[in-house]
Amino acid sequence: MSTKPPCRLCGHALEEFVSFGQQPTANAFLEPSDFDSESFCRLAVGICGACAMVQLIDEVPNEQMFHKEYPFRTSGSAGARAHFEQTAQWLLDTKLTDDRSFVIEIGANDGAMLGFVQKAGVRHLGIEPCGDLADICESKGIQVLNAYFDESTARRVAEKHGLADVIFSANTVSHISYLDSVFRGAEALLKPDGLLIFEDPYLVDIVAKTSFDLIYDEHLYFFTAGSVRDAVARYGLTLVDVQRISLHGGEVRYIVAREGAHQPTAALSGLLEAERAARVTERGTLERFAARVSERKTALVGLLQDLAAQGKRVAGYGATAKSTTVLNYCGIGPELVSFICDNTPGKQGRFTPGSHIPVRSPEAFANPYPDYALLFAWNHQEEVMANEKAFADAGGKWILYVPEVTIA
Length: 408
Ligand code: TMP
Ligand code: ZN
Prior knowledge:
Layout: E1 14-24, E2 40-48, E3 54-56, H1 62-65, H2 78-94, E4 102-106, H3 114-119, E5 123-127, H4 131-139, E6 144-145, H5 151-161, E7 164-170, H6 179-189, E8 190-201, H7 203-209, E9 221-222, H8 225-233, E10 237-245, E11 251-258, H9 266-278, H10 283-309, E12 314-317, H11 321-330, E13 340-341, E14 359-360, E15 372-375, H12 381-387, H13 389-393, E16 397-400, E17 406-407
Parallel strand pairs: 4-5, 4-7, 5-6, 7-8, 12-13, 12-15, 13-14, 15-16
Antiparallel strand pairs: 1-2, 2-3, 3-9, 8-11, 10-11, 16-17
Helix pairs in contact: 5-6
The protein binds thymidine-5'-phosphate and zinc ion (ZN).
């Protein structure tokens, strides 16, 4: 008899609703000498029958994903650079307003947000477990601690630097298995009226767009306002506000305070109501999502096979972590997508995890242009298509697979 794995938050059984089989580490871009030693883990998602937190069934150890060669750079897109400049400005204008203000960022990446705080001369600390990224922050003059964030890190930081007005985090809280320790850490590190503010991909958008490629090893949790509200309440914290964000195909920024310190907003009740109306955590909704995932695979592989049969050359655009799920789930290799171009130095010259497609610099895209470009960085569609207007002008066609497989 197989036992169902437990929810990481409440211990109740998880109900699996979609599986992508064995998957390699999503951001582990390879040298050919690594091909034989790749490690794989089953990628499947379930929902907790008690607390409705949607989460991966299995997990890859942190040290295998977040280490000194972690390649993703937040500053790799103009959209993200603009978003984090606006975020820093918003924090500086509304939350970090006196000369004792102190902001902490969990998962500072390359300092895309904290760089602006540092320039404004406001006290800050980035907490970043990936050594290469911590080095980049330091080279920009950003205060940084090379560590994973948990309760013990939080207590260490509180002792050394004092309590924070804001703990900010983007695309990181959903990556951390031990959320209990994160929330206890936030509770220990915030001033009495301090705020924990974090933004992550939104389950409602993933289901609405069937953007199944946001499911990969790093994304352990798929939050909703409802699941975050219930999760933080266990630690003396209250979800008080939410903001919708367009980055990464649709995210929500959650604003969390100590119980009783801030009043919940109308935006929060509005989003909770919309989630109830969308029935996003109901079994039927999630099963229909899984059925659409499978149809998407059939449509995408069918199109690529037709193009290959016609002798068309297809390249990929953006060696995203998302592409690892698409390529491995659909069984797409170099015979269907000859190379993928990407502007990240740490990915160029390497090969995609599991599917072993070469990654080249963006200059390779035009030498010569392929007939079709499969847009793995679909969340940056406007920016990429504007930058690569000459491709379309030369007769090149874009292939999109979110929210449907289409040729543009
Ligand atoms: P993301 O979807 O997780 O933000 O990753 C986007 C990837 O695409 C990242 O590796 C950078 C790359 N990229 C390009 O190569 N060219 C571009 O114009 C953009 C916007 C992104
Ligand atoms: Zn649970």
